[in-house]
C-alpha cells in the first residue's frame, strides 16, 4: 500500500485523473475527436476567404478555375456551398464536443464525489476527530466542483490550441516555407512562458485551496454553533475571525492573480512580433509577385488564428492549475489508507446469542498513554450489566471498541466466541444498537429519524418503539406529530426529547446487543422513571450494557462494574457493592443522601 501511495504521489495530477476516469475513456476519446474536428472546420473559413480573394483578383485564372469552373459566379457559388457545409459541420461538432465534455465533467465529478465520500465513511473514527469537518466538505464540494469546471471548459481549450498550432504550422511550411518561420517563431517562447508560469502558479493555487478550506471550516463551525455564539454574544468576535480567514484567502488569491493576470499582456507582446513580421514581409512578397494575393490573405488570417488564441492560455492555465491543486487534494484523500478492515465471517442477526468477552484488552488513543490496561470483562448472553466510573476511566471507550470504531492494541474481543475482527463489519454493527449521550438526529421528520437504519418499518412498529421509549406522548403533541421536522441535529427538540427519539430508534433496530451510553442523562426524573419501567421490556432477550451517570438506572443490573484508570476495580450486584463500602457505595451515598451534586463522568 505504501509503495502504491508513493507511486501515486510521484504522478502528475492529470495522469492520476486520467487513470481514475478509465471507465470513461471511450467518452473521453469521443470528446477529444469532436474538439479536434471542430477546430479543423473552424480553421477553414480563412482558407475560403483566401480562395474568394483569389477568384475576385484572378477570375478565370484562379485556383478553382483551374479545376474546370471558369465562370466567376459558379466559382463563388462553389465557395458559398462549401461555406454552408463547413459552418454547419463546425456547429454540429461544437454541439457534440460541448455536450460530451460537459456530460463527462458531470459523470466524473459525480463518481469522484461518491467515491471520496464512500472512502471517508470507511476511515476510522480517529481520522474525523483529528480533522475539521469544513476541510472535508471543501474537498467533497469545492475541489471536485473546481475539477468539473476545468473539464467543462479547459480541456477543450487546450486541445483546440494544440490542434491550431499543428495544423496551421504544417500548412505554413507546406504553402510558404520561406515565411512560415516568422509566424512560428513566437510559439517556443509562448510555450516556455506557459510552463514557467505553471510552475510559479502551482504552489500559489495549492495555498489558495488550503485557505479556502480554512474559510469553509470557519463557516461550517460557526453555523453549527450559532446558538452558542448568540448566547455568549460573540457575534462581533466571530465576524472578526471570519474576516481574518477571508482576508487570508483573498491575499492568497491576489498572489496567484498577480502572476496569472500578467500572462496575457506578455504573451500579446510576443505574438505581436510574429503577426507584424508576416504582415510586413508577406505583404512585400505579395507586392513583388512572389506570393499570391489570395495566399497572402490566408497567411494573415491564419497568423491571427494561430497566435491570438494563445492569449487565452492565461485563463486556461489559471483554470488548469486550480483544478490540478484540487485534484491533488481529492486524490490524497482517496489515498488515505483504511486501517479497520472488515472480517470474513458472516454473523446473521438471528444466530447471535450476545455473549461478549474482552480478554486482556489494552488500548491507547495516543501511544504511551493507555486508556484500557489488560482489561478482562465477560458478559453472558442476555445479561444486563452496568458500568460506572469517573471521567477518563474508559467507559465510553469500551463502546467504541465493541463497534470497532477503533482497533485494540493488544488482547482480543469476542462475540459468541468469535473474534470481532473476523466478523463481517456490517454484521457486527447491525448486531449492536447504540444510544449515545451525544444524540445526533438528521434533518427530517420524527418518523424518519426513528426509522433510521430500518426504513421499511411500518408506522405501527415506529409508534410501538416510541411508546417503549416514552416518546409517543410528546411526539403526538408536536404540531405535525410524527411528520414534524426536527431541524438540523434535532435543534427544534429539547435534549430529553432527542434522547427519547434515539432510544426509540435503537428499539426499532431490535438488535441482540443494546448499549446505553448515558442514555437518560438529558431526561427529567419523571421521564427517567418511565423509561426505567420500560427497560425490562426493552432489554428482554438481549445483552445490555448500560453506562450510567445516575446509579438508579442500573441498580437492577445483573452485574455492575466500576472502572478507574482503565481497569475494573469493583464488580457485583447493587447490593453486593453497597456492602463493600467502596467507590460505588460512596457514589450511591452522594446521589441518595440529599446531596444533589453528582460526580461528573
From TrEMBL:
The keyword Transport is annotated on this UniProt entry: yes
InterPro entries: AAA+_ATPase, ABC1_TM_dom, ABC1_TM_sf, ABC_transporter-like_ATP-bd, ABC_transporter-like_CS, P-loop_NTPase, Type_1_exporter
Keywords (A to Z) from UniProt: ATP-binding, Membrane, Nucleotide-binding, Transmembrane, Transmembrane helix, Transport
Annotated ABC transmembrane type-1 domain residues: 31-322
GO molecular function, one term: ATP binding
PROSITE patterns: ABC_TM1F (PS50929), ABC_TRANSPORTER_1 (PS00211), ABC_TRANSPORTER_2 (PS50893)
Membrane-spanning residues: 72-89, 158-191, 256-279
Compartments in which it is found: Cell membrane
Gene3D superfamilies: ABC transporter type 1, transmembrane domain, P-loop containing nucleotide triphosphate hydrolases
Domain ABC transporter positions: 356-590
Topology in the lipid bilayer: Multi-pass membrane protein
One Gene Ontology cellular component: plasma membrane
PANTHER family: ATP-BINDING CASSETTE SUB-FAMILY B MEMBER 10, MITOCHONDRIAL, ATP-DEPENDENT PERMEASE MDL1, MITOCHONDRIAL
Record's protein name: ATP-binding protein of ABC transporter
Amino acid at each position: 500500500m505504501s509503495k502504491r501511495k508513493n507511486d501515486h504521489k510521484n504522478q502528475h495530477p492529470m495522469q492520476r485523473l486520467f487513470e481514475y476516469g478509465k471507465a470513461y475513456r471511450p467518452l473521453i476519446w469521443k470528446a477529444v475527436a469532436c474538439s479536434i474536428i471542430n477546430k479543423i472546420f473552424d480553421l477553414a473559413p480563412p482558407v475560403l476567404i483566401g480562395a474568394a480573394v483569389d477568384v475576385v483578383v484572378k477570375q478565370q485564372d484562379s485556383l478553382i478555375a483551374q479545376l474546370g469552373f471558369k465562370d466567376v459566379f459558379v466559382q463563388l457559388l462553389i465557395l458559398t456551398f462549401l461555406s454552408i457545409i463547413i459552418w454547419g459541420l463546425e456547429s454540429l461538432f461544437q454541439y457534440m464536443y460541448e455536450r460530451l465534455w460537459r456530460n463527462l465533467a458531470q459523470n466524473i465529478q459525480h463518481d469522484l464525489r461518491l467515491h471520496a465520500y464512500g472512502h471517508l465513511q470507511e476511515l476510522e473514527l480517529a481520522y474525523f476527530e483529528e480533522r475539521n469537518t469544513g476541510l472535508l466538505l471543501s474537498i467533497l464540494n469545492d475541489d471536485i466542483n473546481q475539477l468539473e469546471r476545468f473539464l467543462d471548459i479547459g480541456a477543450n481549450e487546450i486541445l483546440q490550441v494544440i490542434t491550431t498550432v499543428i495544423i496551421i504550422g504544417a500548412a505554413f511550411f507546406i504553402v510558404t516555407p520561406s515565411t512560415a518561420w516568422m509566424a512560428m517563431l513566437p510559439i517556443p517562447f509562448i510555450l516556455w512562458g506557459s510552463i514557467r508560469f505553471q510552475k510559479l502558479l502551482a504552489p500559489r493555487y495549492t495555498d489558495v485551496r488550503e485557505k479556502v478550506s480554512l474559510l469553509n471550516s470557519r463557516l461550517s463551525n460557526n453555523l453549527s454553533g450559532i446558538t452558542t455564539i448568540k448566547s455568549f454574544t460573540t457575534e462581533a468576535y466571530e465576524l472578526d475571525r471570519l474576516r481574518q480567514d477571508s482576508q487570508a484567502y483573498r491575499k492568497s488569491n491576489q498572489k496567484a492573480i498577480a502572476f496569472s493576470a500578467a500572462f496575457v499582456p506578455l504573451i500579446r507582446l510576443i505574438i505581436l512580433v510574429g503577426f507584424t513580421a508576416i504582415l510586413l514581409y508577406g505583404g512585400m512578397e505579395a507586392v513583388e509577385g512572389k506570393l499570391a494575393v489570395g495566399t497572402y490573405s490566408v497567411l494573415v488570417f491564419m497568423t491571427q488564428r494561430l497566435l491570438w488564441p494563445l492569449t487565452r492560455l492565461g485563463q486556461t492555465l489559471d483554470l488548469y492549475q486550480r483544478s490540478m491543486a484540487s485534484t491533488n487534494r481529492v486524490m490524497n484523500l482517496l489515498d488515505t489508507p483504511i486501517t479497520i478492515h472488515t472480517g470474513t465471517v458472516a454473523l446473521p442477526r438471528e444466530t447471535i446469542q450476545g455473549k461478549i468477552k474482552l480478554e486482556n484488552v489494552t488500548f491507547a488513543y495516543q501511544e504511551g498513554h493507555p486508556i484500557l490496561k489488560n482489561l478482562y470483562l465477560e458478559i453472558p448472553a442476555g445479561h444486563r450489566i452496568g458500568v460506572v466510573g469517573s471521567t477518563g476511566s474508559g467507559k465510553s471507550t469500551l463502546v467504541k471498541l465493541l463497534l470497532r470504531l477503533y482497533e485494540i492494541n493488544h488482547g482480543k474481543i469476542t462475540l459468541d466466541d468469535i473474534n470481532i475482527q473476523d466478523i463481517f463489519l456490517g454484521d457486527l454493527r447491525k448486531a449492536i444498537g447504540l444510544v449515545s449521550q451525544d444524540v445526533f438526529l438528521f434533518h427530517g421528520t420524527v418518523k424518519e429519524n426513528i426509522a433510521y437504519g430500518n426504513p421499511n418499518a411500518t408506522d405501527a412498529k415506529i409508534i410501538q418503539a416510541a411508546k417503549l421509549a416514552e416518546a409517543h406522548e410528546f411526539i403526538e403533541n408536536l404540531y405535525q406529530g410524527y411528520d414534524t421536522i426536527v431541524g438540523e441535529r434535532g435543534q427544534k427538540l429539547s435534549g430529553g426529547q432527542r434522547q427519547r427519539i434515539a432510544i426509540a430508534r435503537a428499539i426499532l433496530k431490535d438488535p441482540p446487543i443494546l448499549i446505553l451510553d448515558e442514555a437518560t442523562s438529558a431526561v427529567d426524573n419523571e421521564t427517567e422513571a418511565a423509561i426505567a419501567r420500560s427497560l425490562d421490556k426493552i432489554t428482554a432477550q438481549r445483552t445490555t450494557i448500560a453506562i450510567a451517570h445516575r446509579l438508579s438506572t442500573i441498580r437492577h443490573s445483573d452485574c455492575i462494574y466500576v472502572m478507574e484508570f482503565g481497569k475494573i476495580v469493583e464488580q457485583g450486584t447493587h447490593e453486593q457493592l453497597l456492602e463493600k463500602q467502596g467507590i460505588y457505595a460512596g457514589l450511591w451515598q452522594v446521589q441518595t443522601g440529599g446531596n444533589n451534586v453528582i460526580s461528573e463522568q
